[in-house]
Q: What sequence folds into this?
């Protein structure tokens, strides 16, 4: 038996012992304990240090609003900083350490801040640390950063797994106290699909710590029976250890289930946490009410706890908060705690009621001080006495714990997360939820504090949901509740005459004088006060302190709390881990991988792959003896120019277009004319955005009178399809046209080089002579062995070239056959890098050039625009002044003057001798490479009025790399400008 | 907004199945319409707070373009219609 | 009163009872030379510089909520000048220079922390893009550095180097970039403007704009009519609503951007880091919270709250970039209403109404622009012509064909 564990009682399993450690000390508790209850039982009241003043702090609550008892649980890569001990379920082997203290919890050097507190008033840092200016970042800020923060994260990869799941229900009940259970029972019996979510590891809520009898039995008996019944309903899902953290549009709730956070031995096959997205037709918030602390001098001394927490520790966990507990209350709650303690035989030092008159009766033998208050406390790491004020007369009363009750605030957070503002109730001295649709508060969350009211309200509101959903509500017989006291209280926002700091926000060390300073300096608006003092910005998000802060601000400003209002309630109700919210789509699984149907062929040929969007594309094919990628690429380029090469171009988008108006549609979609494209022919196509900038390019092939096939660039395949669908469905629905993306259905390969025809003819039945299959021919052919394929005589490299498309499953076999047929001709496989060099040499543009700010004319393709067409996308806005201005940057070629000097994409351009400045900036390099064909470095660039400047010497300015290269401006077509090779 | 969108073809589906283009009110002018009409179409948005019509596409479903009529302050959705069918409604 | 270590010392000894209000709470006068609509960062900065730099002190800022209640109080506090296009880069660099002197200029510590921003890239084409951007910065005289993968491994060992879907190739670093304490910026400018005689009028919503003979004569407000010679709009996400009152048609769409903060942690991330294979960005505040965000939700919205699906995607990107974030808990999310423009760049310009001036289109990048936006807007209002770094930020650039499109995404605001 530990120091503060009561001899009997509580919902703990005393037959089993769980070992755990705190700051290295070995301690023990029982199944059913939280870390906090086990620490309290073990006389470990001091659990942390506050944020700013490093004051010693103890456990204040027994639930999720805990501001002080934040500890780091776990070790190594499984460290969880800032874990609230009050909700952390105890397990065997749990290792916890305290935070924000050095060198130790009991002796913390940071506590010097407390001595300097008057110099560290709210917002002091805005007023100083400005001199000398260099000192802020070198001295002051590092000091502040080191002092601030709470726990320490390992920031190392997480060994555990997370997952996400959708759930759908008619009714979501949040909270499993008397209200939630009654609501769930009625809904379940009425046949609704019900989800009951409870953040605690036990279902029952307040019933677990309630001593009032229900039908003459302990409330927990009722709770167990209700849970048992709910278990038996197939239409009910019970989610313990599940916190509903957010309410989103369309009545979607976000919830996090702690699946394995209560075990030292994590099963790797299961997630540790699971995020639920719950789509609920209706929801009932049965989240109860939060007891408010009282704001008096020294109210943060370890041992000062809410009265509800003191009762909960005694009733549910069998732990006494102290051996001589004082109680300070402004309502009946303090009397309830006194009764419960007295029943357990815990000593009560005094019951101090701020009200002069009240009907409540103290337990027999307990000293009752009416009209009194606490103005100070004594002790350092545990309270040893309080200073009571009895009508101006001060008295020191010895105690080792102090229970405080400042009244109740309904827990309405979720109801206020979608813009609705809470409504002040003068009668209840509390904010209530606004009227919102899809969700209602019930029981204590709706300001009904009596047990009988809660049970009735939960049942009634569930019945209303049942009826609203068109069913008949089942009955609910409320158990008979023992005699209940009047739950009212008299608001006491702060206790006058405090002898020391009276804290409003415990964790952030905001006290009443800070709020006073804020009001004095003009920060009286509740949002200003929050932001200036940081009240309510700690990890508990003001759950405990905000309403007191509102009351204090109201009093200082001489208005009602209604006028002050609250700060905004936002997700997350309690903090949620990144891992849970992220789920499984992280790391290597962040995005899916797309592989070309020729991936295996490329791999077998030794390809090095690179990322291209979601694709892996073959970049180059190193041969034995080649040490750098450049050696491979240079060889591939030379081979293509002199013999032949085969390249995988399957990743291009391929869209089939059908319909009587297909030609008309494409004619409007592309800026160049397509109406008269003959069947069996391909044409280069340029697509603009409506603003006149180039959107994408590709080829358009007419396979039949009403059948086209167009290609897009790899990256724009999805966007182009959506763009076409928009045009067809929204802009011109009168046109008869349909599309189908066939990108994945075809393996496509480019065979390029002087030997391309000879190689291909060996595989194709059809005649491929220039006369029979001329440049830009595009039609179905038959391969030897009877496979139907599509063949296009188009070229990106500038060589005699064909693109051959075969059904995806035949891709590798056909590619292998081409390589075999090409072997005697010296064929090689070539990759994206060589393709890039080949196209730069030929002056062909890609999305390195089309960066979304380029017009056709900028790219030297102005003549393609068929301005005679009545309409095409981008036509009209292309004529804007800025898009036709003479000094626009135009595509040019660049040749490095000295052969061994390189140029890289991203360099800018300067006139020779000009000073670098934004004004003098002449343009930029879009693509650059070493040209094996020309034997030097070449580039494509955009240069102001570039086409008039061929022959000019220009500086390729790459200050980022520290390189400047002299280059000559030239036509962007470096190789075969007469297209002799292409037409061969 | 709209965690869920009720596609007129596919039923109620999560928002992630859809992509959003923007204001569905501007109608593409005739090719020879005045410059101002084209500028308004491409660049000017009424951008009211309240009831709006917006183009969404059910990209992971039927791939139809839809007009979602909704409130951009409360995020309430009033109607979802196929864009082809609702075309002309704003003229 | 002047702030200093000495004033803190003296006031502390007097029980901190002697501090004076940071700003007055004046009733509106019947008439002002200039009324600025919007008491956020940009409106307050405009008022400050109008009074300080251009000697125009008969100025009111009218704000429908509390001072700083807009995006200046709900952003991720990043300050940088790493832009690419000539229409933007000189402006943002001017802004960063103003930031660097702001604490002493305002006698208010806005906690500028030049921690450096590192923009990661993950493939060759992104590297080329960032090279182009870095060189554009260098052209403007702004220091930029290219970091290779090995350097990044040393500097940021917690990034995902080993198991990433998109491997980290390198990064672009601007050392002078960093963060600032967002609320303090609003308060510092407000205090500065107030001390120069500007009336800051809170809880005063503009309900109409009165015009006579083609000129604005004043605004109808929830506190009555207030007359003015010149009216300046700095209403961010609500610009379209206010502009409509004067018959303006604007190239804006309002969108929601979410941001997030974690529980406080001891220092673990020193820089501002942006993810190249997504939109995620993160930094650590002086209080210890990790502040982060990513892209806009994508739909038109005037609600200051976002969608769970977007939030989950932000977390996916975060854990993908920094696996160790997985066990860090996210404390709070919020949303701001962004005035997304048609090219992703802002507008500081006159309007078709001669005495009505416009400052808008900040998209999700307005915070870093706060000082220069205020300075240049004040310049425009006072002198009638654009400041030279803001010359490209014209309202008519769309119809004239001079967009400033950093993303190259065209006229679809949710793509910027």
A:
């Amino acid at each position: 038996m530990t120091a503060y564990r009561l001899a009997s009682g509580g919902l703990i399993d005393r037959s089993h012992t769980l070992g755990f450690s705190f700051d290295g000390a070995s301690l023990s508790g029982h199944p059913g304990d939280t870390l906090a209850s086990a620490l309290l039982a073990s006389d470990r009241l001091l659990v942390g240090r506050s944020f700013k003043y490093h004051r010693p702090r103890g456990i204040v609550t027994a639930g999720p609003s805990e501001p002080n008892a934040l500890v780091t649980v776990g070790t190594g890569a499984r460290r969880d900083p800032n874990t609230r001990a009050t909700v952390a379920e105890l397990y065997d082997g749990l290792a916890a350490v305290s935070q924000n203290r050095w060198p130790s919890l009991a002796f913390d050097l940071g506590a010097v801040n407390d001595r300097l507190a008057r110099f560290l008033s709210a917002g002091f840092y805005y007023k100083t640390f400005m001199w000398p200016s260099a000192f802020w970042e070198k001295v002051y800020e590092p000091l502040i950063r080191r002092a601030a923060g709470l726990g320490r994260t390992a920031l190392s990869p997480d060994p555990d797994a997370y997952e996400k799941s959708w759930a759908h229900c008619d009714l979501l009940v949040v909270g499993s106290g008397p209200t939630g259970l009654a609501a769930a029972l009625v809904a379940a019996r009425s046949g609704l699909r019900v989800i009951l979510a409870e953040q605690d590891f036990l279902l029952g809520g307040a019933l677990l710590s309630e001593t009032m009898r229900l039908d003459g039995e302990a409330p927990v008996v009722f709770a167990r029976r209700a849970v048992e019944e709910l278990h038996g309903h197939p239409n009910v899902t019970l989610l313990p250890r599940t916190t509903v953290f957010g309410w989103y549009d369309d009545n979607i709730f976000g919830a996090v289930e702690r699946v394995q956070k209560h075990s030292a031995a994590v099963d790797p096959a299961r997630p540790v946490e699971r995020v639920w997205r719950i789509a609920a037709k209706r929801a009932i918030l049965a989240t109860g009410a939060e007891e408010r602390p009282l704001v008096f001098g020294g109210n943060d001394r370890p041992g000062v706890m809410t009265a509800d927490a003191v009762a909960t520790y005694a009733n549910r966990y069998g732990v006494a908060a102290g051996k001589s507990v004082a109680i300070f209350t402004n309502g009946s709650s303090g009397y309830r705690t006194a009764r419960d303690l007295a029943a357990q035989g815990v000593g009560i030092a005094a019951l101090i009621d701020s009200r002069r008159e009240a009907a409540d009766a103290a337990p027999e033998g307990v000293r009752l001080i009416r009209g009194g208050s606490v103005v100070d406390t004594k002790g350092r790491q545990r309270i040893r006495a309080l200073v009571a004020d009895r009508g101006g007369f001060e008295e020191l009363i010895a105690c080792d714990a102090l229970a405080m009750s400042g009244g109740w605030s309904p827990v309405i957070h979720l109801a206020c997360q979608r813009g609705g503002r809470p409504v002040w109730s003068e009668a209840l001295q509390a904010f209530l939820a606004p009227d919102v649709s899809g969700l209602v508060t019930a029981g204590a969350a709706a300001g009904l504090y009596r047990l009988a009211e809660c049970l009735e309200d939960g049942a009634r509101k569930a019945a209303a949901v049942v009826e609203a959903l068109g069913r008949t509500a089942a009955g609910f017989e409320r158990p008979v509740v023992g005699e209940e006291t009047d739950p009212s209280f008299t608001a006491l926002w702060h206790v006058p005459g405090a002898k020391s700091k009276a804290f409003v926000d415990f964790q952030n060390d905001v006290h009443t004088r800070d709020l006073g300073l804020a009001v004095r300096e003009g920060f009286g608006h509740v949002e200003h006060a929050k932001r200036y003092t940081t009240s309510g910005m700690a990890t508990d998000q003001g759950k405990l302190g905000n309403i007191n802060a509102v009351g204090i601000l109201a009093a200082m400003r001489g208005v009602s709390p209604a006028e002050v209002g609250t700060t905004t309630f936002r997700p997350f109700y309690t903090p949620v881990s990144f891992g849970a919210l992220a789920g499984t789509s992280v790391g290597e699984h962040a995005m899916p991988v797309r592989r070309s149907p020729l991936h295996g062929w490329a791999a077998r040929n030794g390809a090095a792959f690179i990322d291209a969007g979601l694709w892996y594309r073959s970049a180059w094919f190193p041969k034995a003896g080649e040490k750098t990628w450049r050696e491979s690429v240079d060889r591939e380029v030379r081979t293509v120019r002199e013999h032949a090469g085969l390249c995988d171009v399957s990743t291009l988008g391929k869209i089939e277009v059908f319909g009587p108006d297909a030609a008309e549609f494409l004619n409007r979609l592309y800026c160049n004319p397509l109406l008269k494209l003959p069947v069996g022919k391909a044409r280069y196509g340029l697509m603009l955005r409506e603003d006149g900038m180039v959107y994408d390019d590709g080829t358009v092939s007419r396979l039949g009178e009403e059948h086209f096939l167009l290609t897009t660039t790899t990256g724009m395949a999805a966007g182009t399809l959506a763009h076409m669908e928009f045009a067809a469905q929204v802009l011109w629905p009168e046109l008869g046209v349909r599309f189908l993306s066939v990108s994945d259905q075809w393996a496509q390969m480019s065979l390029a080089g002087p030997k391309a025809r000879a190689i291909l003819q060996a595989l194709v039945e059809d005649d491929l002579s220039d006369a029979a299959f001329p440049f830009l021919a595009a039609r179905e052919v038959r391969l030897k062995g009877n496979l139907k394929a599509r063949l296009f005589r188009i070229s990106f490299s500038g060589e005699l070239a064909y693109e051959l498309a075969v059904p995806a499953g035949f891709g590798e076999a056909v590619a292998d056959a081409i390589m075999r047929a090409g072997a005697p001709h010296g064929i090689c496989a070539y990759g994206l890098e060589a393709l890039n060099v080949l196209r730069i040499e030929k002056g062909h543009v890609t999305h390195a050039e089309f960066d979304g700010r380029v017009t056709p004319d900028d790219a030297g393709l102005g003549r393609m625009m068929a301005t005679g067409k009545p309409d095409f996308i981008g036509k009209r806005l292309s004529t804007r002044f800025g898009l036709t201005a003479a000094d626009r940057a135009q595509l040019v070629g660049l040749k490095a003057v000295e052969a061994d000097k390189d140029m890289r994409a991203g360099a800018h351009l300067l006139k020779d001798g000009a000073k670098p400045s934004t004004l003098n900036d002449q343009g930029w390099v879009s693509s650059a490479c070493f040209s094996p064909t020309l034997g030097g470095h070449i580039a494509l660039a955009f240069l102001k009025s570039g086409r008039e400047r061929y022959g000019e010497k220009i500086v390729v300015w790459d200050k980022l790399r520290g390189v400047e290269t002299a280059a000559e401006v030239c036509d962007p077509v470096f190789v075969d400008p007469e297209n002799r090779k292409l037409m061969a | 907004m709209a965690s869920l969108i009720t596609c007129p073809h596919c039923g109620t589906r999560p928002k992630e199945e859809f992509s959003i283009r923007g204001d569905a009110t501007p109608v593409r002018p005739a090719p020879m319409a005045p410059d101002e009409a084209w500028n308004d179409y491409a660049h000017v948005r009424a951008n009211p707070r309240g009831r709006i019509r917006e183009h969404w596409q059910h990209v992971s479903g039927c791939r139809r373009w839809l007009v979602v009529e909704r409130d951009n302050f409360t995020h309430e959705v009033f109607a979802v219609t196929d864009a082809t069918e609702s075309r002309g409604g704003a003229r | 009163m002047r702030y200093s270590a000495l004033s803190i010392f003296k006031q502390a000894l007097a029980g901190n009872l002697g501090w004076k209000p940071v700003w007055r709470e004046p009733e509106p006068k019947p008439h002002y030379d200039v009324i600025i609509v919007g008491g956020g960062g940009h409106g307050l900065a405009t008022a400050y510089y109008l009074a300080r730099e251009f000697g125009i002190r008969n100025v009111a800022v009218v704000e429908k909520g509390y001072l700083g209640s807009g995006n200046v109080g709900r952003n991720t506090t990043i300050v940088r000048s790493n832009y690419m296009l000539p229409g933007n880069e000189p402006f943002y660099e001017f802004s960063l220079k103003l930031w660097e002197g702001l604490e002493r200029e305002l006698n208010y510590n806005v906690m500028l922390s030049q921690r450096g921003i590192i923009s990661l890239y993950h493939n060759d084409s992104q590297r080329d893009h960032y090279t182009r951007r870095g060189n554009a910065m260098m052209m403007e005289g702004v220091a930029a550095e290219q970091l290779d993968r090995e350097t990044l491994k040393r500097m940021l060992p917690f990034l995902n180097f080993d198991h990433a879907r998109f491997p980290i190739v390198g990064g672009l670093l601007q050392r002078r970039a960093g963060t600032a304490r967002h609320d303090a910026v609003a308060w510092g400018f407000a205090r500065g403007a107030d001390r120069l005689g500007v009336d800051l009028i809170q809880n005063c919503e503009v309900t109409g704009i009165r015009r006579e003979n083609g000129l604005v004569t004043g605004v109808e407000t929830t506190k009555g009519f207030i007359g003015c010679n010149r009216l300046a709009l700095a209403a961010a996400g609500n610009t379209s609503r206010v502009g409509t009152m004067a018959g303006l048609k604007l190239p804006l769409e309002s969108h929601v951007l979410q941001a997030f903060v974690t529980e406080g942690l001891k220092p673990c991330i020193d820089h501002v880091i942006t993810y190249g294979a997504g939109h995620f960005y993160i930094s650590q505040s002086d209080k210890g919270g990790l502040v982060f965000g990513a892209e806009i939700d994508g739909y038109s919205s005037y609600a200051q709250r976002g969608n769970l699906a977007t939030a989950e995607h932000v977390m996916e990107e975060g854990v993908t970039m920094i696996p160790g974030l997985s066990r860090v808990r996210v404390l709070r999310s919020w949303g701001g209403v962004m005035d997304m423009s048609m090219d992703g760049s802002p507008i500081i310009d006159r309007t078709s109404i001669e005495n009505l001036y416009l400052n808008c289109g900040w998209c999700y990048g307005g915070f870093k622009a706060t000082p220069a936006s205020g300075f240049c807007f004040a310049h425009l209002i006072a002198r009638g012509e654009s400041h030279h770094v803001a010359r490209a930020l014209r309202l008519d650039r769309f119809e004239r064909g001079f967009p400033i499109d950093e993303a190259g995404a065209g006229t679809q605001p949710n793509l910027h």
About this structure: Residues 117-177+254-341 of chain C form a domain with the D-Amino Acid Oxidase; Chain A, domain 2 fold (CATH 3.30.9.10). Chain C has a mean pLDDT of 97. The two ends of chain C are 43 Å apart (CA to CA). Chain C has eleven helices and 18 strands.
